[in-house]
Structures are given as C-alpha cells and as structure tokens.
Amino acid sequence: MAAFKETKFPADAPAAEKAVGWIDDRFPLTKLWNDQWGTYYAPKNFNFWYIFGVLATLILVLQIVTGIFLTMHYKPDATLAFGSVEYIMREVPWGWLVRYMHSTGASAFFIVIYLHMTRALIYGSYRKPRELIWLFGFAIFLALMAEAFFGYLLPWGQMSYWGAQVIVNLFGAIPLIGPDLSLWIRGDYVVSDATLNRFFAFHVIAIPLVILGLVAAHLIALHEVGSNNPDGIEVKDTLGPDGHPLDAVPSHPYYTFHDLFGVSVFLVIFSTVVFFAPEMGGYFLEYNNFIPADSLKTPLHIAPTWYFTPFYSVLRAITADFMYVLMAVVAAYVVFVFLKSRLAFKTKAIIAVIGLLMIIGMLPAILDAKFWGVVLFGASVMILAALPWLDHSPVRSIRYRPDWHKYVYALFGFAFVTLGYLGTRAPSPIGGVVSQVCTLIYFGFFLLMPWWSTMGRFKPVPKRVTFHPH
Amino acid sequence: MKNEKLVDPGRRGLMVATCAAGGVVGLATAGALVSTFQPSERAKAAGAPVEVDISDVAPGTMKVVEWRGNPVWILRRTPEMMASLAKNDDKVADPHSDKIYQLDMPEYAKNETRSRAEHKEVLVVVGICSHLGCSPSPRFAEGAQPSLPDDWTGGFMCPCHGSTFDLAARVFKNKPAPSNLDVPPYMYLSDTRIVIGKDEKGEA
C-alpha cells in the first residue's frame, strides 16, 4: 500500500472538483463510476433487446420504493391483512396508486426479465466467458420468483391463500422428510397467521437483500468481461489506437441517453397499465383475490399468476399414465447419449446409472406421479442454469446460425407460451395432452441442445459488428 | 515466501481450535433460528376434537366444519348416491382404502362406503386433496359436464389440478392425487351428533 497522498488543487479550482477530489482520495468514487458506467465501453450495435437490463433495474428501484410506502400502512396479521390492503386502496391518500404501481411492477418485472433472458438466448450472451453473468442472472430469477410468491400471500385473498397452500405442499412430495418440511415452512398445520408473518419478513427484507447482492454481482461480472452484442462478436478483439474497442462506445453519455429514451417509452406503457388496466383482465391481479382468504373453501378456478404458469403446467402435466412415456423417453435419451455423444465412458456410465435409477423410481410402486411432477416442475426452472454448458454451437448469435435453428427457437418459444396459457386455464383432458407434449418439447430443447446446436451450415461471422449510423 | 516456513504449529493449532469453536457457536445459533420456524406451542394446542350437530344435513347435502384448521365434510348420501359407489370400484385407485394415509385410516372406514356401520350413508372426510392441499369442490350432478368425464356419477373435483373423487371421496385412477381423502377419527354421540377428532380408541 502506498502512503496516503492528498491531491492538491489550484486555489481557484471549482468547489465541486475539490469535493470529488477529497472523496476520491478516501473512496474510489470516480473509479467506480468509470468502471461500472462512465467509461465502460459497450458495443455500439445494441438494438432494442438491450434495453431490458436497464428496465429491470428501474423496476427493482420502483418496487423497493413503493414497497417501503406500502409497508407503512400494511398489517401482516391474518385477521387484519386483507382489510389493511383495502384500507390502502380506499382511504390512504394516493394509496391506490402506490399499490397499483407495486402490483403492476411485479408483472412488469417478469415481462422484462423474460425478454432479457430471451435476448441472452438468441444472441448467446451466456456463452464463455459470460457463464457467471448468466448464473448470477439465473439466481436473480429464482430470488424474484420467491419474492413474488411470498408477496402474493400478503393481501390474504383466496388466491393468496390457496396458492401458498399448493406451493408449500409441493415440498410435502419429497419422500420421508416432505410432510415435516411443509409443516416447518408453514409454522402451523395449515397456512395461517404464522405463515403470513414469516412470508412478510421474507418479502420485505430477506429476499430483497439477496436480490440486491446478486444484482451487484451480475453487474460487476458483466463490466469485468464486457457486454455481448447482437452479432455475438468479441469487440475487445479489435482495439483502436486508444486501447478501447473500435466497435464500442463509452456508456456515458451514449447509452445514458439511449437508455433514457427506452425508459421513457417503458414508463408510458407502464403508466397506461397502472391507470387504465391495473388488473389486466385478471392476469396481473386475479379476481378471486378480492375475496378474503377462507381456509374451508378453495375457489372453483385457481391458477398462479401468469409468470408462474409455464412451470405450473409442467407440474400439472405429470400424471400416472404419462410416467410410462417419461420412462421410455429417459431410456431413449440414455441410449442416445451412449451412441451419439463424445463424453468419457465414465460420464456416460454415470448418466446411464442416473437414468436407470430414474426409470426404477418412476415405477408406480416406488415413487408416485405427484413426486415426479414436483421434480419436473423444479427441473424445468433449474435446467436454465445449465444453458452455457448445453449450447455447443460454434457461433454465439442467431444471426450466424443455420436458418432452421430459428424454427427450433420458435418451437421452444411456442411450447413455453402454450404451457403458460394452459396453466391459466382450468384442467381439461385435451389441455392435459397438449401440456404433456409441450413439456417434452421444453425439455427436449435443452437436453438435445448439445447435438442440434452444432448441426447445420453456419454462416461466416464477420470480424466487425454490423452497424449502420443513422 | 520465507514466512511459509516459519509456521508455528502451536499457534496454528490454536487458530484451528478457535475457528472450530466459532463454527460450533455459529451452528448452534443457526439451529435456534431454524427452530423458530416450527409450529408454536399455541398452534400445537389448537387441535381439540369438535362436536357437530348433523340433524340439519338433509340427504344429498353436505356440511363443512373446521377441525385443526382444515375443512371436514359431512355428506349425507341418498340411496342413489350410495348405489353409484359400486359402479366406481374398478375406476378408483384404491377402492378399499388399503394404502398408507396421512391420518391413520380408521378400521371402520376401510370399506366401499368409507363410513361407520351405524350410518353408512354419512360420509365424514377431511376435505383436503391428497395432491397439494386444495379443497375439492362438490360436483354432485350426474352426467357429462365441463372438466368431467361423460359417465360421471357424482363426486368431487379439485379445482387446482383436476383430481376427481367419487362420493366416498375415493380418488379416480390416473389423477395427480395419489390417494383417497383422509377419514378423521370420529364417532356418533347420538343419531344426530358426532364428534370429530376422537373415537373409541381416543383422540387423534
């Protein structure tokens, strides 16, 4: 460590410059700003897909700020919670606006995050060396789902109550410890005041702290390795005489103003929803949640909020008959890995043993369909984390992949949206079969990716990014 | 570089011991925090048996009472409803309730009607689906209707994941719910009064 050195300024230097200098001698303020944004060089060919990271940050701030003000009026007590939310809506001055901003913000958060993840998927933003950015982002997604789930219990409506009941009971499907684990999570034999109180604690402090930490890690990792771009080219490979990438511009002022424009467009759409359609036809705020929680009666139609429905459909698709299809699929996959992969024999053997154990476990006498439903529900979320290691394509961006890859992505997107749609509907025999097919497509997309992502004629990747100045 | 050779084994030993002791304190504290998640003494105490007057339950209707925070259904079945049960024996997953249940299945409920011999037409079950804990809805009307098979003979359907149950709360085959609904311990105090949560063998 060098000895402390006070920066000397001429006597007539502006006060602000002196103040910043004084801070910089004691805390790396200017350095942090420049590393994280000011002179962070970002590729100049960003398109509209690159706005969603900034929008997610904006919504995070919005949720924290509106959340703080809601906490000042909300009562985390099973007998008072429902009433206190209605009190916020009807009697607290402007309380309805703060509450609608918070509830619309939750759905907006997921829309933006799903689009942000789609961007990463089509431009290969998770590929080496950005695996950790993807993993931190994936962890944020998990934390966000937990945050949304805990928050949804707080209004203590019928959907809050029965949604929490179903999700907590998912843990009950784990053999041996399951029922005790659900009991431990609820803190009572049914979802009750104890459950509401602890979910409140998780929602307002525990999970937000985790999310803030993960967002910091996500951004530090991003600014360490640099941003990907729609061409999937490493801009750092072509440096200019000043040592900065030729195809990149400093974030400030270029992307500051570019993003402010995007933020303005977003706020117009967001305000429109907040003021004119805060319930969004029952998708953002479900109608049944305007009925106070009743532990003796499940509403006739219950469904999770829209952002959970794709995964919820996977859970619902797993029935006893479908187990035989799954057993056949697992067996076929193991044979496929043995014949087609170039993995070491030991790895193949491990995959075969796991596959065999799964098939045995899927026999009706061993573990029931309920358990496997929960396993596949969990796996459908967790498999996203493996993406950097499943994609073996020689190019990152969809722009230089074989054209038919676009249809693979479209099929996956279609299966995901269909699962999401079916999850909002009441169970039906046809819907059940469709969601089973979509579940197979969903998992097939990921588990067969090591093969299909390398197949076909790839287009030549240019050395410099595609950019047309306007 | 030289420092590495100057490790004092006595001091290193103390350092390891200090870390270990700190770890024990940390684990014990975590244990206490984790334990606060268990049901409180008050929650545990709130599980007493409930007495119910069933004189107002007309044939073909159902009454819902609360026991341990859960809904308990008391359904008085009509003769036609009773007759429908035999038709479902080969369509339900566990016709004689032989599986292992969350609440020990009382001996007097291990039969086709899943009810006590005194009043075979009265069904008493915990109305919580064995899948993920929703409360199924009564769908007593017979015949084809939305979300139900065309040969429906009346029963219950869970709104969450579509499990269906017959009028003895037995789950139909190939549904997400793994088992029939639980029968709580119960007994008749008189022809019109029952107690739930207690039988000849004692309290549940």
Q: What layout of secondary structure does this protein have?
A:
The complex is a heterodimer of chains A (470) and B (204).
Chain A: H1 15-24, H2 29-38, E1 41-43, H3 52-71, H4 81-90, H5 95-123, H6 131-153, H7 158-170, H8 178-186, H9 193-225, E2 248-250, H10 251-276, H11 309-317, H12 322-340, H13 345-362, H14 369-382, H15 387-390, H16 403-424, H17 429-447, H18 449-452
Helix pairs in contact in A: 3-5, 4-5, 5-6, 5-10, 6-7, 6-9, 11-14, 11-16, 11-17, 12-13, 16-17
Chain B: H1 9-35, H2 41-45, E1 50-53, E2 62-67, E3 70-76, H3 79-87, E4 122-126, E5 137-139, E6 155-157, E7 164-165, E8 186-188, E9 193-196, E10 198-199, E11 202-203
Antiparallel strand pairs in B: 1-9, 2-3, 3-4, 5-6, 6-7, 8-9, 10-11
What does this structure look like?
The complex is a heterodimer of chains A (470) and B (204). Chain A has 470 residues and is an all-alpha fold. Chain A has a domain at 28-283: Cytochrome Bc1 Complex, Chain C, CATH 1.20.810. In chain A, 62% of the residues lie in helices and 1% in strands. Chain A has 18 helices and two strands. Chain A has helices at 15-24, 29-38, 52-71, 81-90, 95-123, 131-153, 158-170, 178-186, 193-225, 251-276, 309-317, 322-340, 345-362, 369-382, 387-390, 403-424, 429-447, 449-452; strands at residues 41-43, 248-250. Chain A has a two-stranded antiparallel ribbon. Chain A is globular. The relative contact order of chain A is 0.11. With 204 residues, chain B is an alpha+beta fold. Chain B folds into two domains: 2-35; 44-204, 3-layer Sandwich (Rieske Iron-sulfur Protein). Chain B has helices at residues 9-35, 41-45, 79-87, and strands at 50-53, 62-67, 70-76, 122-126, 137-139, 155-157, 164-165, 186-188, 193-196, 198-199, 202-203. In chain B, strands 1-9-8 form a three-stranded antiparallel sheet, with no helix packed on it. Chain B is elongated. The relative contact order of chain B is 0.16. The model of chain B has no long low-confidence stretch (mean pLDDT 87).
